[in-house]
Amino acid sequence: MKCFSPKTTALQWIGLSLLSLLILPACSVNPVTGKNELSWVTEDWERKTGEQYYPVQQQIGGGKYQIDPDLTLYVRSVGKKLALYSTRSYLPYDFVVLNDSTPNAWALPGGKIAVHRGLLVELDDEAELAAVLAHEIVHADARHTAQSQEVGSLLSVGQLAATVLLSNAGIDSQAAQQGIAYGGLYGQTHYSRSRELEADFYGMQYMSKAGYNPRAAVNLQETFVALSQGRRSDLFSSLFASHPPSQARVAANQQTAYALPNRGDRGKARYQKEIAALMRRKPAYDYADEAKKKIAKEDYTQAILLADKAIKIEPKEGLFYEIKGIAQSKLNRSSNALKSFDTAVALTPGYFAPILRRGVLRFDLKSYRAARQDFEASLKLAPTQIAYVKLGEIAEEKNNCGAAMQYYQQAAKAGGKNQQQLKQKLLALQTTCQP
Ligand SMILES: [Zn+2]
Q1: Which residues of the chain have pLDDT under 70?
Q2: CA 190 / ligand 1 centre spacing (Å)
Q3: Spatial separation of the C-alpha atoms in residues 254 and 256, rounded to whole Å
Q4: Dist. CA 156 → ligand 1 center (Å)
Q5: Chain CA centroid to CA 153, Å
Q6: Longest dimension (CA), the chain
Q7: Which of 425, 401, 424, 374 has the alpha carbon at shortest distance from 176?
């Protein structure tokens, strides 16, 4: 059985050699393509990794789209229908809609798949949604996600076993309120050209078997190529970085479509009905996205006005209050900001961001006990560097230097540009702490 191709790059060899220190890669047959390939993961690993990272990746991706649970049920039903025809249909597939305006979709090993609401508004019919989902199903089914270089490099340095820590733009409260920057394991997965073509090809087979017209995958790719050249291309940068559109993919999909029966459902009326509520709220999300841009430009008054416009359209969306709270706290309207964050927390239960932001505000107001509760609650949902740093600072306030050191050590695991600052904090504590 031949596993190494002459194309194996020097970098891959180094990666593989490092990997072999941890896990012995084995030659195996790809479940979807039937090709021999080198694999360093087992199916058990795929399942466990998917289950472990799915909740936290949802948090990083804006959290579940809680205001419209029916939308997730609908997307899940389309996904499950397609997954029945995947090669490993027994994988624990799941599908979720995330509250993020960025058009994107991703898959974790073991079949955990997410679609941002920002992508749903760009699609025309259910068959196009099926094209997106089937493509992501193949990434999981054919072990593309499990075999990606990003996962490989993490495995090679032994980080995967450790908790993912989300690095923050800055550890001072000011930077924290400007926006919490997240980096996740799968947000940056980049698929190679051949894997993209593979995901399109097999995805179209799954679509056809599930009763969808595979031509929708051609139309979708044409739309993406046009979008990648248009003035809105910035908006799609993350989707296109992980799944680059190209004329070659359009051509390949056309060929695949010709070989498949030219029939099947497009489900336009059904799709439009299912996303009608989302489309009604779209102007509100546009205002909210504008408000975020105003915050970045430090125009907080305008940001509040825009957040209020969004709230007027949809008073039940927690995200709008979270944005309003950020702007209010920048203008030192602390009690108003607290109220906004309270509302955001109440409207999006189980979502870490407004809890964390309220914690930072409470910390600045020296309400340490309440702040600590928020940081601890946020950490249960998503581990962030800022929460560990703030818990360390609270522990220092209470002269509990042992606990402070532990928190800073956790924070230091996230790396990033705060590493030096954290090391200094730890060194200072080591000299002052009683043994
Ligand atoms: Zn892809």
Answers
A1: 1-25, 40, 148-189, 415-417, 434-435
A2: 8
A3: 5
A4: 24
A5: 19
A6: 76
A7: 374
Q: How far is the CA of 160 from the centre of ligand 1 (A)?
A: 22
**Whole-number Å distance between alpha carbons of 368 and 3:** 57
Q: What is the pLDDT of residues 107-154, one digit of tens each?
A: 988 999 999 999 999 999 999 999 999 999 999 998 887 776 555 544
- Contacts by 341-350, CB closer than 8 A, 24 or more apart: 343/318, 344/318, 344/319, 345/318, 346/318, 347/66, 347/316, 347/317, 347/318, 347/321, 348/63, 348/66, 348/99, 348/318, 348/319, 348/322, 349/66, 350/63, 350/64, 350/381
Dist. CA 132 → ligand 1 center (Å)? 9
Backbone phi, psi, residue 187, to 5°: -60, -30
Sign of CA dihedral 88, 89, 92, 97: positive
The DSSP code sequence of 357-392 is: HHHHHHHHTT-HHHHHHHHHHHHHH--BHHHHHHHH
Domains of the chain in start order, with CATH, are 41-144+191-270 (no CATH), 168-175+350-435 (1.25.40.10), 281-346 (1.25.40.10)
